[in-house]
Write a structure and sequence with these properties.
single chain; 294 residues; alpha/beta; Rossmann fold; seven-stranded mixed beta sheet; three-stranded antiparallel beta sheet; 11 helices; binds S-adenosylmethionine
Length: 294
């Protein structure tokens, strides 16, 4: 990250009162990085200023300095959650990077299906699921290829750090633009029109379980994962933060499990070599071990 602590000039706050020094931005960014891994630098100052306006207003504060003081003085975790919600980028849509779902349906689902039928419990994870578009798209793929899935121990875990995103996911109601990338047949099959919006079919909701999870904190899964979609999340983390995520994934994935990452993300860190590239931004974990097991 660019080090700008030594600079002394000020940057205009959203109120134009010049009360925010670059040191204040830097301190806030360190706090954010330590809390959720998001690595901000000075190029984001105006964006963050604009996003924090609502927090300043709600708390009747007018500068980063006073906001920082407030964050340090309160033991209430709510404001940290609000801050994180302000700085996360939640852009997402149903069917985003559709090649992943094509690969998942044709290359991953047949094996997951037969393992589920043999009594194995199957766990998929949408890590950094935003408003639920990603896990519900996975659920569409699962139900399209495995209509009788409800008879088996097959679940999609959907987690995010942003509580507002999780609320939308749990509600399962979306504006029509959100599903534009899905084929119309899929929209007709798995969404119920409700006024101007669309509601996901209860079968999709039954498959997906939403939970709050900060990827930087310990992961509470008690079962190993069969496929992970961690897309367009670690792009916002530092290089070290990204490497830590891949090490953690290596601890939590079954040999042969698939990992889907975002189009501009790369596997890194000491666990990197354990992920074999099998398709565009698609990896298989410990393939050799999986082959020996079968
Ligand atoms: C750009 S969205 C990507 C959504 C979806 N995976 C996709 O590709 O469409 C990134 C998501 O990662 C979440 N996120 C960022 N830092 C996180 C962290 N430390 N733990 C969990 N989720 C995080 C954000 O809240 C946001 O919803």
């Amino acid at each position: 990250m660019t080090n700008f602590v030594s600079q002394t000039n000020t940057s205009p706050s959203v109120f134009g009162d010049n009360t925010d020094s670059l040191e204040d931005f830097s301190e806030l960014y360190t706090l954010i990085r330590n809390e959720c891994g998001i690595d901000l630098d000075e190029s984001k100052n105006s964006l963050i200023s604009a996003r924090l306006q609502t927090r300043y207003r709600a708390l009747k504060l007018n500068s980063y300095r006073s906001y920082l003081r407030y964050l340090h003085s309160t033991s209430d975790k709510t404001e940290m959650e609000e801050l994180i919600s302000c700085v996360t980028t939640n852009v997402t849509s149903f069917g985003r990077e559709s090649h992943h779902f094509e690969f998942f349906e044709s290359q991953v689902m047949p094996d997951l299906m037969s393992r589920a039928k043999r009594g194995e419990c199957i766990r998929l994870w949408s890590a950094g699921c935003s408003n639920g578009s990603e896990p519900y798209t996975i659920a569409c793929s699962v139900l399209e290829t495995f209509p009788e899935v409800a008879k088996y121990d097959f679940k999609i875990l959907a987690t995010d750090i942003d509580k507002y995103c999780l609320q939308t996911g749990k509600t399962g109601e979306y504006p029509r633009e959100q599903v534009e990338k899905l084929p119309s047949r899929i929209v007709d099959s798995w969404f119920i029109p409700t006024g101007n919006s669309l509601r996901v079919d209860p079968q999709l909701q039954k498959l997906v379980q939403f939970n709050s999870l900060n990827l930087l904190k310990p992961w509470p899964m008690n079962r190993k994962l069969d496929a992970v979609f961690c897309r367009n999340v670690i792009i916002y983390f530092s290089a070290d933060g990204q490497a830590d995520i891949f090490s953690n994934l290596a601890e939590h994935m079954k040999p042969g499990a698939h990992l889907f990452i975002g189009h501009s993300e790369k596997i890194s860190g000491r666990s990197g070599p354990r992920f074999t590239n099998v398709d565009r931004t698609t990896y298989q974990f410990d393939v050799g071990k999986a082959a020996r097991k079968n």
